[in-house]
Design goal:
9 strands, 19% strand, 2 domains, 4-stranded mixed beta sheet, globular, 11 helices, alpha/beta, 282 residues, 5-stranded mixed beta sheet
């Protein structure tokens, strides 16, 4: 298939920002892909909630929905693209057909991850696939799309539009791959050493949960104190979803904060240093 693939694109409009793993532009559609290297068994319940279980004896835990995360990414794309339209009529037409022309896809990249989406709502189930299903998914979805095919020139214009608006960031890929290797080594050791490794894993997960709970408390305390100081709603500082993303991504500097949804220049100038200090344990 003819397509353009953009990787690790950072976009910002107003107070909205998004770090998108992949934008795939085909002749008919634009795919916004969120790639997750999740480990453990993943279940999606009938409410569309994501639940993870590390091992048979480990407790189940809710995790932040990558579908919700990707919907925010689509919102940023929509706003940026709409702003570029010349007049009100073009903006209306673009907004009307946006969902028809753009597809949100969550790809599970870890081949050892078990996905149980048996009870997931249909609209959620259709957005979550395994990495080895991606090629067939794009071919099938493009083949069934009713939109008019784009020319080579039009495809390139869409790809260049987002590429030109990309904000250069500094993703810590080394840290990501170190964590991935560590998890795979732990899984291999678990298969050979049995209960000892599973116990170590459970203790490690408990420690991580305790650390995350402490961060949640500190971030909430900061949010409440700042909201009272400014006489505004606490979620104006950052909402619970943004707080979970802060904890998951652990930004190390102001530039890293741009990769967290909802954090633009104004918010980072006002709260960035204080939030970074909390995440670093200072």
């Amino acid at each position: 298939m003819d397509m353009y693939v953009l990787h690790d694109i950072c976009l910002e409009t107003g107070d909205l920002s998004a770090q998108i793993d992949y934008i795939v532009v085909t002749r008919k559609l634009v795919y916004v892909i969120e790639c997750k290297n999740l480990y453990g068994n993943i279940e999606i319940d009938n409410g569309g909630n994501f639940v993870r279980q590390i091992g048979p004896s480990s407790p189940k835990e809710g995790i932040y929905s990558p579908i919700t995360q990707n919907q925010r990414h689509l919102r940023v794309l929509k706003e940026i693209r709409k702003e570029s339209k010349g007049n009100f009529l073009l903006k209306m037409v673009f907004e009307k057909f946006f969902e028809e022309n753009h597809k949100s896809v969550v790809v599970l990249a870890n081949p050892k991850t078990y996905l149980n989406a048996k009870y997931a709502p249909k609209e959620v189930k259709q957005q979550v696939i395994r990495a080895d299903q991606l090629v067939d998914y794009i071919k099938k979805t493009d083949g069934g799309a009713k939109t008019d095919p784009k020319s080579e020139k039009a495809m390139l214009e869409v790809a260049n539009f987002y590429l030109e608006r990309h904000i250069q960031g500094h993703s810590d890929y080394a840290k990501q791959y170190e964590e991935m290797v560590a998890r795979h080594k732990m899984t291999a050791a678990d298969e050979t050493e049995g209960k000892t490794i599973r116990q170590d894993t459970a203790e490690h997960e408990t420690a991580l949960q305790s650390q995350e709970a402490e961060l949640v408390q500190k971030l909430k305390e900061f949010r409440l104190k700042q909201s009272r100081k400014e006489n505004i709603k606490a979620y104006y500082i950052f909402n619970d979803a943004q707080m979970q993303e802060l904890i998951a991504k652990r930004p190390q500097n102001r530039e890293d904060l741009y990769a967290v949804a909802g954090f633009g220049k104004v918010k980072i100038e006002k709260y960035g240093d204080a939030i970074l200090a909390i995440l670093k344990g200072n």
